[in-house]
Specification:
single chain, 370 residues, alpha/beta, Alkaline Phosphatase, subunit A, 9 helices, globular, disordered C terminus
Length: 370
């Protein structure tokens, strides 16, 4: 591999990979917590995710795209889940999902780019921060690697000086790493170049160790679907089961910007979400890691209450999100925004600040990591 190819590879993967394998393998189980973040890119429609099926206004505002009551997976006398979320309904019944209602923030922004920035940094709507909110979580985990980005942008994992890597395919990553040369002269008057030379060696050595860890890990008993999101969750499961002790994982599921003909695409996205989470859970139960793992969904905004002329929904405000795990205190959290009390733009008025959901996840993870 020539120097230009290496530099391109380093830039693409943000490779501080050696950190993955330097975890303290004697770490106590209660310091081995994992947080998997799932970005629902584009703005998930909360109204068709957690459905107020008993409210006539829901059907009035959505004559073409409302989920019919007979199809709703009912949680109580007023609310139920989309029929594509049958696996998550099972986990809700087991008490393993906390559903946060009406999640948003004051003075909501309807720009994809600005709103996701607010979510990523846990900032106010008029505040601009550089670091992702995950950086502020106090952990005692001894792994030098802090997180793995498996889909799209770094988002909440931004701001770490080192210790965040990006992997799209484990086998490809290992194969590229093994092609790096074995011996390099490390003496250089250029500190930056010397760092690159050292990194070449560290990458190769670490890749070999990772390959060995994966070889010594039992194959997954439960197969993931072949879609991109499921494969991200597959990689996260592999790394967790390989005892790498990496605390944070960032994944993403795209195409929630459902401006037209929403019903079928949205149903398919929720199905992918539900199936992948359930399969991950099954595999982590097998390896004894489910009790150490927390999953959280988030998205830049929800959708408008009223459907548009294209049988879709436009950018809105509040939405619904999930915190899932073997140690999560499940149930409905917060208050569902009343459809009879919309804001001046006829959007939902948020009832749960998104930072409360982060705090819930933070407290949960910190309790396990300390």
């Amino acid at each position: 591999m020539n120097r230009r190819t290496l530099l391109k590879y380093l830039a693409f993967s943000t490779l501080t990979l050696p950190l993955i394998l330097n975890a303290n393998e004697n770490i106590q189980k209660n310091k081995n917590a994992k947080l998997i973040l799932i970005e629902l890119k584009g703005g998930n429609d909360g109204l068709n995710t957690l459905i107020p099926y008993a409210d006539p206004l829901y059907y009035k505002h959505r004559p073409n795209i409302a989920i019919q009551e007979k199809d709703v997976l009912k949680l109580n006398a007023n609310l139920g889940l989309h029929p594509s979320l049958k696996e998550l309904k099972e986990l809700f019944d087991l008490g393993e999902i906390a559903i946060f209602q009406g999640v948003g923030y004051e003075n909501p922004n309807r720009s994809h780019f600005r709103s996701i920035e607010i979510w990523d940094t846990a900032s106010k709507s008029n505040e601009y921060l550089d670091d992702g909110w995950v950086k502020s979580i106090k952990i005692q985990n001894t792994s030098n690697i802090k997180g793995v980005v498996l889909g799209a942008e770094y988002g909440p994992l931004s701001g770490f000086e080192n210790g965040i890597i990006k992997i799209e395919n484990i086998n490809s990553f290992l194969n590229k790493s093994k092609k790096l040369p074995n011996n390099l002269y490390l003496s250089s008057n250029n500190d930056a170049l010397e760092h690159i030379l050292r990194t070449e060696i560290e990458i190769k050595n670490s890749a070999l160790k990772l390959e060995e860890k994966l070889k010594n890990t039992k194959p997954l008993k439960h197969s993931f679907e072949k879609n991109n999101f499921a494969q991200q969750m597959h990689i996260a499961t592999q790394l967790i089961n390989a005892k790498t002790n990496i605390p944070f994982y960032k994944t993403s599921l795209a195409s929630f910007d459902t401006h037209q003909n929403q019903l079928n695409p949205h149903a398919n996205l929720l199905k992918q979400l539900s199936q992948a989470i359930y399969t991950l859970r099954q595999n982590l139960i097998e390896s004894g890691e489910w009790e150490n793992t927390t999953i959280m969904t988030y998205s830049e905004f929800g959708r408008r209450v009223e459907e548009n002329a294209s049988k879709g929904t436009d950018h809105g405000t509040a939405s619904v999100h999930f915190v899932i795990g073997g140690n999560v205190q499940g149930g409905l959290k917060g208050v569902y925004p009343p459809l009879s009390q919309l804001d001046s733009n006829r959007d939902l008025i948020y009832t749960t600040d998104f930072k409360e959901m982060y705090s819930f996840s933070d407290r949960h993870e910190t309790a396990k990591l300390m």
